[in-house]
Design a protein that fits this description.
Chain B: Belongs to the binding-protein-dependent transport system permease family. The complex is a heterodimer of chains A (311) and B (274). With 311 residues, chain A is mainly alpha-helical. Chain A folds into two domains: 53 residues, no CATH class; 228 residues, Orthogonal Bundle (MetI-like fold), CATH 1.10.3720. Chain A is 72% helix and 1% strand. Chain A has 14 helices and two strands; from the N terminus they run H-H-E-E-H-H-H-H-H-H-H-H-H-H-H-H. Chain A has a two-stranded antiparallel ribbon. In chain A, strand 1 and strand 2 form a beta hairpin. Chain A is globular and about 75 Å long. Chain A starts with a helix and ends with a helix. The relative contact order of chain A is 0.13. Chain B has 13 helices and no strands. In chain B, helix 11 runs antiparallel to helix 12. Chain B is globular. Chain B starts with 6 loop residues before the first helix and ends with a helix. Classes of the chains: A mainly alpha (311), B mainly alpha (274).
Chain lengths: 311, 274
């Protein structure tokens, strides 16, 4: 990318008449004016609160009374308290469901179809698979709470195929509540990942596959050496989107389980909300918020690095 | 016959299974929504006597008309202004700054992965200090700021692809920067602006965390926020809850069905770039 201030004098001889400094200073002024409104909004409602989050995280404060300086104690609590560690662990367990299921299923579909979904079938597929992306996560949470309810469709199906002993109130079960929440997230993200991967695979040169077949490559080899590398970028996108959705989840958990039973489905997003507004531990909530932000960054960075470098 | 591999039947089968899985929760909600009031219906069972009146009752109980108005007001407050200032900033960053100011762009990009939960606590105190708690502005103003990383990133990516001679031609005509921006750049950016508008509309309409924390009155919230309150109040009345949920998600689904192509394109590009 070249910018106007440096490229203009060479490209447009007429403009050389202007003293270059004046032109560039004007441009710089204009740039600031164009960027300023967005930057002010961003600074006021993201950067400033973020700084306040860091500041609060160093305090012991109930949100009303006098705040006490507390050093890094809140961070120590976040990283040692067994409940909080379990809550952070829950978020990472959700990553397994939110990320693995959509990406693996999406890859399976993409590898099997390997062509444009044209015509009516393609349009219907796209429309249906994108529905979960359009509705609020809250609605997905309500729909699935009903699916997982004791008289819901999941149990109804289990009973119909003779697995009545498996039927249970999934979202109230200490073992199964977290996987159930994970399934909700997987359902939401499944269509998006599938469509991204199906679109991505059509961009792979078909002659690669033909050449591979002439060389007698088996389907697994085609998948391993052509499809996977070819989809590297799309897979990266899917992982990034789904990992963020899992680590920063709030809506689905708030609606479907409220974090229960016990804290088996509590995630950092929900705990921040609880600590800050129900338990009045603003400092601890803020420390958890900062830790969450850093965890998201740390989790995303290798994905970005690994999937972007060679393209 | 290059593309019609023997796998394509399997592929179709897989996709049809995926579609069924996607649709089942909706169908299950619909069947429950039509069950008689006060009963505890089964997962998926077409009721012998579908109670379409449940939807009427849910409409009244949820005060859908007011919710629609509230959500629309919030969207009108957030989306046009966000798109405008993000387009300006994207243009400014792509066309008017040199590499020396790359840091400014990176500051914006930093916010791309920021979970809203990371700033929600201070936002509460900030909004309270501004005296805006429990008003729609408590949702509108923070959302504009929170959308800036993605929106600016998005518009800058568009403007980077606009060839330079266009800018220069406009300058030779003696057009001022501002005029050039409106008369040349904005019309050219229409597809990018359109996609951004769709995405911001969806994200605003479906926003849940901000309304839950910053606005108590469901009637001042977004659709998603109101749905949360509705569940809290009617969570045990399954037919009513399902009818209300379907009503609340109907407007976006209807819009989506009409503008299916644009929505899908926007969501896919949005994921790729975000």
């Amino acid at each position: 990318m070249t910018d106007i201030t440096t490229s203009l004098p060479d490209a447009q001889p007429e403009r050389v008449r202007l003293p270059p400094s004046r032109g560039s200073r004007k441009t710089r002024m204009a740039a600031w004016l164009f960027v300023a409104p967005a930057f002010i909004a961003y600074a006021a409602f993201v950067l400033a609160p973020l700084c306040m989050s860091i500041y609060y995280s160093l305090l012991r404060w109930d949100g009303i009374g006098e705040a006490q300086f507390y050093g890094l104690s809140n961070y120590v609590t976040v990283l040692t308290d067994s409940d909080l560690l379990q809550i952070i662990g829950n978020a990472f367990q959700l990553v397994l469901y939110f990320t693995l299921i959509p990406v693996l299923l999406g890859l399976a579909v993409a590898a099997a179809i390997r062509s444009h979904m044209a015509g009516r079938f393609g349009t219907i597929t796209r429309t249906v698979l994108f529905l979960p992306q359009v509705i609020p996560l809250v609605a997905a949470g309500i729909a699935w709470s009903w699916m997982f309810a004791s008289t819901g469709l999941v149990n109804q199906t289990l009973k119909a195929i003779g697995l009545s002993s498996w039927a249970r109130g999934w979202l109230g079960d200490f073992v199964w509540a977290l996987p159930a929440v994970g399934i909700i997230g997987a359902w939401v993200l499944l269509g998006l990942c599938t469509m991204l991967l199906v679109t991505g695979i059509t961009k792979i040169d078909p002659s690669l596959y033909e050449a591979a077949r002439l060389d007698g490559a088996r389907p697994w080899h085609e998948f391993r050496y052509i499809t996977l590398p070819g989809l590297r970028q799309e897979i990266g996108v899917c992982i990034t989107v789904t990992v963020i959705a899992a680590l920063a989840s709030f809506d689905i958990v708030y609606i479907s389980t409220q974090g229960g039973p016990g804290i088996t489905t509590t995630v950092p997003g929900l705990e921040i909300y609880r600590l800050a507004f129900a338990h009045r531990q603003v400092g601890l909530a803020s420390a958890l918020a900062i830790v969450l932000m850093v965890l998201v960054l740390i989790s995303i960075a290798p994905v970005q690095w690994f999937t972007r470098d060679k393209k | 016959m290059k593309t019609a591999s023997p796998n394509s039947l399997i592929a179709r089968g897989l996709i049809i299974v995926l579609m069924i899985i996607t649709l089942l929760p909706f169908l299950s909600m619909l069947s429950a929504a039509l069950a008689p009031q006060g009963t505890y219906p089964n997962g998926l069972q077409w009721p012998s006597d579908p109670q379409w009146s449940n939807f009427v009752r849910a409409f009244e109980v949820a005060r859908m008309d007011q919710l629609l108005l509230s959500s629309t007001l919030i969207v009108m407050g957030v989306v046009p202004l966000s798109v405008l200032i993000a387009t300006m900033a994207g243009y400014g960053l792509a066309k008017l700054t040199s590499n020396k100011y790359k840091w400014l762009y990176l500051v914006f990009v930093f916010g791309l992965t920021l979970p809203f939960e990371a700033v929600i606590t201070p936002l509460y105190y900030e909004v309270r200090a501004l005296g805006l708690l429990n008003t729609r502005f408590a949702i509108i103003l923070p959302l504009i700021g929170l959308y800036m990383p993605f929106s600016v990133y998005w518009m800058r990516a568009h403007f980077l692809n606009v060839p330079h001679d266009l800018t220069e031609a406009a300058q030779l005509d003696g057009a001022t920067r501002w005029k050039e921006f409106w008369l040349v750049q904005v019309p050219l950016a229409r597809p990018a602006i359109m996609s951004l508008t769709i995405l911001l509309f969806l994200w605003t309409w479906n926003q849940f965390l901000l309304p839950v924390v910053l606005v108590q009155d469901p009637m001042q919230r977004t659709m998603a926020g109101a749905l949360g309150a509705f569940q809290g109040q009617w969570g045990t009345d399954i037919p009513l809850l399902c009818a209300g949920s379907l009503l609340i998600l109907a407007p976006t689904v209807a819009l989506f069905l009409v503008f299916q192509r644009q929505f899908v394109a926007a969501l896919m590009q949005g994921a790729v770039k975000g």
